[in-house]
Amino acid sequence: MKVKKVIVLLIVVMFTFNSSINKGGVYANNLYSEEYISKQEMQFMNNDYLGSGENDYKYKSGTIPVLISAPHTVKQWRDNQYKGADVYTGALVKALQKSTGAHIIYKTSSNGDENYTNKETAYRKKIKSIVRNNDIKVIIDLHGMLSYKKSDIDIGTGNSSNINLLGQNYILSLIKSSLSSTNYSVNKYFKGGGPNTISTYCSKNLGVPTVQFEINGKYRSTDSKKFTYMVNTLTKAINNLSKRAYIPEGKVVNVKKYISLRSSKSSANNKNVIRKINAGSSVTILDNINDVRKDNKWIRVKYNNKIGYVKSNYISLYKVGKIVNVNSSIRLRKNTNANSSTVSRIPKGAYVNILKSGKIYKVKYNNRTGYINEKYIK
After folding, report:
1. For residue range 31-47, what is the model confidence (pLDDT) as tens digits?
2. Which residues pair with 254 in a beta bridge?
3. How many whole angstroms separate alpha carbon 277 and alpha carbon 134?
4. Could you tell me what percentage of the chain is helix, strand and coil, using 3-state DSSP and rounding each to the nearest 5?
5. How many Å from the N-terminal Cα to the C-terminal Cα in the chain?
């Protein structure tokens, strides 16, 4: 009798589990049902993937310094004809927002082609606003490639020199480590380095390292297992970037008053001066940090959302520390008092700029400054 009861109980559990999966949604085993996937894609499928036409894009705010762009969720107008949508990239980006907390933006109307223009479109203006208001560290531009391609994911970094990573090549290393068990390639099918791509726009004009992810068509459908596999794979990579990515910063030194931020690598005259940067100010490094240590070399930096060039001998890199010895996160305190208010929470493994060391460290994380006990920094 006991055996029969156990069998009956197992049947009931299996029936309940399968029923819940078929009703749609995400459950404990992180399996996305066909109904859930279809529901997320529905707004793009309507009107034969032409979009509603009411709004150009949709933005959903996030909680981590990563932005995911999906510009081909609907058909786009290119060379006087419609270009097919990257189907289910819309469902993917919405699922990723829930699984990672990333900021997301995606197209909702077939207005031009965001990856094939040199115009400052409404979509691009919104990305610029998101970057400025949320201290975005990395941008991922999400696309789809055909099913016959031999890679599950093709990572585009601009070219073989990873031009769109702005010298922060460790970002590619972080992505590779997350995808180590995945059939991925780098710059094999789509580099994302053309002059009119989102990736180039974001890296060149906004000063944010950007990668293009091309997702194989076999993972962009209502196939529950394949869709779930891709969401979980990308979630791992995005979480790794969120916790470990940092953009190096430095302080202006060796001058009494200021240095000039220039639009080109020349100090022959003042025609290329964008603005002045006061001594002691912080700048974001948009070049290989090894170049900062080379005297009299021009390096690309960002200051108050302006991008330009300065001589490396005027920049002193901040030291970088890693958060350790915590279960999940640590409080960034307003002052050195251990009971002072919390400025932000920093996840375990995240990197911070060290402004001052000692028993209590003064650090900067995600554009916020505060204090942490020395035992939590390595």
Report:
1. 899 999 999 999 999 88
2. none
3. 22
4. 30, 30, 40
5. 60
One-letter amino acid of 288 = N
In terms of DSSP bridges, do strands 103-107 and 57-60 run parallel, antiparallel, or are they unpaired?
Answer: antiparallel
Write down the pTM of the prediction: 0.84
Map residue 207 onto helix, strand or coil.
coil
> Quick one: tokens of 34?
């066909």
Calculate the alpha carbon distances from 279 to 59, 167, 201, 256, 292 in Å. Answer: 38, 24, 30, 7, 17
Among residues 147, 31, 130, which one has the least CA distance to residue 87?
A: 147
Alpha-helical (H) ranges within the chain are 2-22, 34-49, 89-100, 122-134, 170-178, 198-206, 224-244, 289-292
Q: What is the DSSP letter of 313?
A: G
Angstrom distance (rounded) from CA 327 to CA 348: 7
| Residue carrying the six token digits 């639009």 | 263
Q: Token match 């006087």: residue?
A: 80
Q: Exposed, middle or buried, 222 (CB in 10 Å: 0-12/13-18/19+)?
A: middle
Taking the C-alpha atoms of residue 261 and residue 281, their distance in angstroms, rounded to an integer, is 12
- The pLDDT tens digits of the residues spanning 71-118 come to 999 999 999 999 999 999 999 999 999 999 999 999 999 989 999 999
Q: Which of 133, 132, 154 is nearest to 145 (CA)?
A: 154
